[in-house]
Amino acid sequence: MVTMMQPAGASRRRRSCRSRSRADGGYGILEVVITFPVLMLMVGGVVQFALLWHGRNVAEAAAQGGLRSARGYASTAELGQADARSYLSQVAPNLLQNPDVQVDRTLTTVTVTVRADVLSIVPLGLTVRESVAGPVERFVGPN
Q1: Strand partners, 131
Q2: Which residues have a Cβ under 8 Å from the Cβ of 47 and sit 6 or more positions away?
Q3: Strand partners, 116
Q4: What does the DSSP assignment read for 114-139?
Q5: What is the CA radius of gyration of the chain?
Q6: What is the DSSP track for 76-129?
Q7: pLDDT on residue 1
Q8: Nearest Cα to 129, choosing from 138, 142, 116, 110?
Q9: pLDDT, position 14
Q10: What residues contact 105, with CB distance under 8 A and at least 6 apart?
């Protein structure tokens, strides 16, 4: 039977490692207490940015839909406004709050502007404003 002899300092090193790990026990909690709020703030910022980006896309799509409706040959500004509001209520009823749709129709152009507050998880008060314009369809004779 072969027995291995440990060096004289090995048992002392093992004991000192154990005592050191017990002495550092409180720092792990402190690191979590400091790091966790910062991490949650960063995640909240990323989510808020995604909501803002999506809100801009929805507002732009609503404005384009209102423009398509309002620029028709026999259409009106009210029809374009109703279509844009309908799109907002169907696609993003909770994302875009307090939507305001303005349609300006002249003899030659239509401008649709959609403005709304974006749902906020971080209290910043973010709003989106998207505006599109295009020509009015009109009848042109053979000349």
Answers
A1: 113
A2: 121
A3: 128
A4: EEEEEP-SSS---EEEEEEEEEPP--
A5: 32
A6: -HHHHHHHHHHHHHHH-TTTEEEEEEEEEE-SSEEEEEEEEEEP-SSS---EEE
A7: 57
A8: 116
A9: 58
A10: 70, 71, 76, 77, 80, 136
Give Dmax (Cα) for the chain. 115
Of 123, 98, 119, which Cα lies nearest the Cα of 41? Answer: 123
Confidence (pLDDT) at 28: 80
CA-closest candidate to residue 61, choices 90, 18, 26: 90
pTM of the model: 0.74
Contact residues for 138 (Cβ-Cβ < 8 A; gap 6+) = 73, 108
Nearest residue to 122 (alpha-carbon basis) of 54, 55, 52: 52
Q: Both ends of the chain: CA-CA distance in Å? A: 115
**Who's near 126: CB < 8 A, 6+ residues apart?**
48, 52, 55, 117, 118, 120
Question: What tokens does 69 get?
Answer: 């409706």
User: Can you state the angle between helices 25-70 and 77-91, rounded to 10 degrees?
Assistant: 150
Per-run averaged pLDDT (10 residues), the chain, 143 residues: 59 55 70 90 93 96 96 93 96 93 95 95 90 92 82
Is residue 132 within 8 Å of residue 114, measured between CB atoms? Answer: no
